[in-house]
UniProtKB/TrEMBL annotation:
Residues 122-163 are annotated as: Disordered. InterPro entries: Erv, Erv_C, Erv_N. This is Endoplasmic reticulum-Golgi intermediate compartment protein 3. GO terms for biological process: endoplasmic reticulum to Golgi vesicle-mediated transport; retrograde vesicle-mediated transport, Golgi to endoplasmic reticulum. Residues 13-104 form the Endoplasmic reticulum vesicle transporter N-terminal domain. It comes from Oopsacas minuta. One of its GO terms (cellular component) is COPII-coated ER to Golgi transport vesicle. PANTHER family: ENDOPLASMIC RETICULUM-GOLGI INTERMEDIATE COMPARTMENT PROTEIN, ENDOPLASMIC RETICULUM-GOLGI INTERMEDIATE COMPARTMENT PROTEIN 3. Belongs to the ERGIC family. It is found in: Endoplasmic reticulum-Golgi intermediate compartment membrane; Golgi apparatus, cis-Golgi network membrane. Coiled coil: none annotated. Pfam families: COPIIcoated_ERV, ERGIC_N. It is a multi-pass membrane protein. It comes from the Eukaryota.
Amino acid sequence: MASYGSPGIWGRLKNFDAYPKTMESFRIKTLHGAAVTIISSLFMLGLFLSEVSYFLTLDVRQELFVDTGRSRGERLRINIDMIFPKWPCAYLSIDAMDISGEQQFDLQHSIYKTRVDEDGNKIVKDDEGEKTEPGEGKLDLETLSNSTELQDNSEEDTKEETDPHRCLSCYGAETESIPCCNTCEQVREAYRRKGWAINDHDVIEQCANEGWKDHFDSQSKEGCIVQGFLEVSKVAGNFHFAPGHSYQQQSVHVHDLHLFGKNARFNVTHKVNKLSFGHEYPGMDNPLDGHMEVDGSAEQEGNSMYQYFVKIVPTHYWKSNGTVLKTNQYSVTKHKRSIKLSIAENGLPGVFFIYDINPMMIQLREGRKSFLHFLTGVCAIIGGIFTVAGMIDALIYQSNKALQKKIDLGKAT
């Protein structure tokens, strides 16, 4: 048993105190010490707020692995919002095809074309005919992006309904599905399905009665806004914007350019307001968004073919609530070359997107940082700044003390 006055077990524990205290009367407070305290406190507060912001920010982790889950028949959605300020809607054909043999000609069911005049105003139709919409029709990219009402203003004026028993000739292109052609567009569609070209629209009675050629020529100085989406098989393929009516002839994709003549010039100036493959996720970066190309070759000897070679990377984005968004990212390489229509094998003017599917998949997963990680960071900030500030204060104090001692001894210089 310990004798009276001898240190007990609690008394011995004092020997392990790493923070010995001094009496208040022995503590010295200095002006530089106050300055160091204020500055270090501000640093501490700033870093603390930064750590809080970092803790509250979602952490997105990225993983890369081989895509083995692709199923047969899976579809790829392509979202398009483009502007062709010098290319009329009537001249423009939008087609898609892939290596599986699937082809889509002159897409219209989910792609909408809006005519614009030379000043960028949308051309609308009412009971009085065609007119422009100044201001609202300007090529405002933000307005186009947020637009929810898409209209196809490139179609001809609505015609008076014809006699239901009327059956005009398709000029040799009749089939069981198209036995009659009462409009110019029906004749063109019948010829497209046959893989034939119409050399002269004036000899087609329906086209002549509708004034199709004059209406076509009247749009020569207009532009076109193309918006919408298309769905294709999830295999390598391409979709393109090119002049002329498209059709298939002996397993070859052909565009009918007879209407334009061999010396035609197409200004393929374009701006990609939006191009994405699938749904968007937070922070998604589409490299072609806002990209613009100005075609200067239309005034020279040839036309331009713009080719965008797109590498699509399947992406799964897992949200913090457990839901998954299946979409795609992409990278792109651009190429441009001049085209002469007089040389058939030289190619076709227009904008071509040639895409391929990467066999790798990226998985992005949202997550929150642990509170323990946050607490560790805060302690490191407080402890680190407190220690460094103490070292700086001690250094300044000792330096001043040594300097004062020299002054007192009369040795200061």
